[in-house]
Amino acid sequence: MRDMDPNDIRIAARELTAFCAATLVKAGARSVDAQRVAEHLVTANLTGHDSHGIGLLPAYLKHAEAGLVDVEATPEIVHDHAAIVKLDGRDCWGRIAGEAAMAAAFPKAEALGVCAVTLSNAHHLGRIGAYGEIAVNEGFAALFFVNVTDHDPMVAPYGGTDSRFGTNPVCIALPPSGTKPSFLLDMATSRIAMGKARVAANKGLRVPFGSILDENGLPTDDPSGFKGFEQAGALAPFGNHKGYGLAFAAELLAGVLSGGGTIQPGNARRGGIRNHMTAILLSPDAFGDPAAMEREMEAMWDYALASPPADWDSPVVAPGDPERALKKRRSAEGVPLDPETLKQLNDAAKAVGVQQRLG
Ligand code: NAD
Predict the structure, then answer these.
(1) Does the CA dihedral 291-128-134-98 come out positive or negative?
(2) Which atom of ligand 1 is found nearest the CA of 148?
């Protein structure tokens, strides 16, 4: 499996985390928050989601400087009734808000078998699969729907020619069962994540044709309009009308139920990233015979993965498997970073007074 380009250099996750945390502290973050946010970003790199990794640090610093993330805020529970709990992130770091939402949901999901938790006004939640991992580590299954506001839209509706949605991620996580690891489907509803267009533009690479619409609304494979943190054109939804429908559903479930709002232009677009989320946690134990469920899970998993591969070098895997494999490799070998991203990171850190340089 090719994991880096010739110009990339590998840096150990520990070094990246320390650099990122130190930089966030210089930008005003509490050191405990800075460490959690840094680990969250670098884990995104480790699992192969460079689009949601340390490359976002310059944007986070810009947001902190502009007050678009409140480095002193902590999330608050604003509604708590029966199987529902609602939190307001108060614009605090997304990772901190996302963890708080999970912690608030666990006791209800444990006691009632199910809990719906909403989170409004979190800064960027990053890789949503991280919250799926937190849920499955506690033995819960979970479904996450997320929308993005405070930002110009990035994704065109199916059949449209300009952006009207965020990249609205959806995540479905199931805990390990028997010999099987956790199931973790975690994806943007755009065909490629915004950050993937940015990383491709930084590296001078093409993206799959039609995953981007140019400024005239025409399909293209040229991501150059997404270099740095600019955007010219729109991302396309995955799966045509189906992905568009799922993006729309995430917009409504996350933006409306949480009270955080949707991306329609009546809501603020200050140039930050606000994520709102609706998640449903399920306790498998509340649904029936654990041994029978385990047998069925194992049988289905084996059946699906036994399909003869179209390419014998790429056997069928389960959602979550690619991230597990890459995490193992990158934890051992280091995280590859391209020269443009390295430069952006070093420039951004220097601007807040960090002496250390990466690379
Ligand atoms: P992706 O296309 O790389 O992968 C999506 C999913 O597909 C993963 O669950 C992965 O395990 C699975 N997968 C990949 N290859 C597979 C294969 N061969 N067989 C079976 N399953 C396979 O992900 P993406 O859509 O580019 O999203 C990247 C990240 O961006 C996600 O972590 C997402 O949460 C995050 N994101 C966050 C926001 C936000 O606002 N916070 C917005 C958009 C995306």
Answers:
(1) negative
(2) 40
